[in-house]
Amino acid sequence: MLSRKTLTAFALAVGVAAPTAGFGQQESTSERLVDDIVRDIIYRTSEAAREEVRRQTGIDPLERGYSYRGDYPDEHHSRHDIRDETRRELRQLDDEYDRKMVKLEDELHRELNKAEREFRREAAKEEKPEKIREKREKLREKVDKAHDKFGRKVRKENRRFDEEREKILSKRYE
Questions:
Q1: In this predicted model, what pLDDT tens digit does every residue of 68-87 receive, in sequence order?
Q2: Ramachandran sector of residue 130 (left: φ over 0; alpha: ψ -120 to 50; beta: rest)
């Protein structure tokens, strides 16, 4: 049988915990909503950028450039007449390009992290899930803007790579 002290301590614990139990659930529901929104918007965008960088950095510059679409042959596809110096220059260009892609991805992640922190800060001020959902659109706009900026920079870097690659490869005919 339980003593009076044990029963009193149990009653006090239940009495103190009961009012805060609902508060914790409300808070965790809002936190879950915020986490779901962040996962839906930011993590998906981040993963798409990561996949783009993986795809872009995996080419062989001796085979093709970034404007290659597979519907026309690369005029420099013959590897047997490429000098060692040209190969070295192409590898160096490719290494520079890969570093630039990683830098652009890091830049995007910094912007996404900033948007996430801001969203979480703003969402923490709200008590109603409807208000948090409204803030989702503002987050979506920031993330889309950051991803578009990333895409423009990647395309610009692809053009620069292709131009430099063309210069390097055309030197072998001089």
A1: 544 344 554 455 667 888 88
A2: alpha
- How many other CB atoms are found less than 10 A from the CB of residue 46? 18
CA angle, 5 as apex, 3 and 7 as ends, to 5°? 70
In the structure encoding, which two tokens stand for residue 70, read together? 């597979």
Look at residue 73 and give its three-state secondary structure.
Answer: coil
Q: What is the DSSP letter of 71?
A: S
114: nearest Cα among 93, 145, 82, 157: 145
Structure tokens of 14? 């239940």
Task: Please state, in angstroms and rounded to a whole number, the distance separating the CA atoms of residues 81 and 89.
Answer: 15
Here the tokens at position 97 are: 């390009």
Q: Say what the pTM is.
A: 0.71
